[in-house]
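Methods — Computational structure assignment.
A single polypeptide chain was analysed. Its primary sequence is given first, followed by the predicted tertiary structure written as structure tokens.
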Amino acid sequence: QVQLVESGGGLVQPGGSLRLSCAVSRSVSTIGSMGWYRQGPGKQGELVASITNDGITNYGDSVKGRFAISRDNAKNTVTLQMNSLEPEDTAVYYCKAIILGTWGGNYWGQGTQVTVSS
């Protein structure tokens, strides 16, 4: 069984920073794209950022220039560095990984709350 384990959410003031991390719980053959999605209160879910296994990144328009996604293929982890946080960034953030081959499928983390408030 494969699980995605997230960490790093919390409460931060506007203008502050947080780092989210997500780890695949077991050794797998190949991980394709990894990314972060979020769903704010009363809002639809949206892509925050994604990264392919060769490092190509994609960002949602609202976070470009403020957030940075990275991954460590040796450790099967993905990290989201969030800077200049705004109240509008308040949401539950979910990690997603597309695993290929054995254990293949789309996997989601349990979600981690990020609250930006003074």
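Note: The mean pLDDT is 95.
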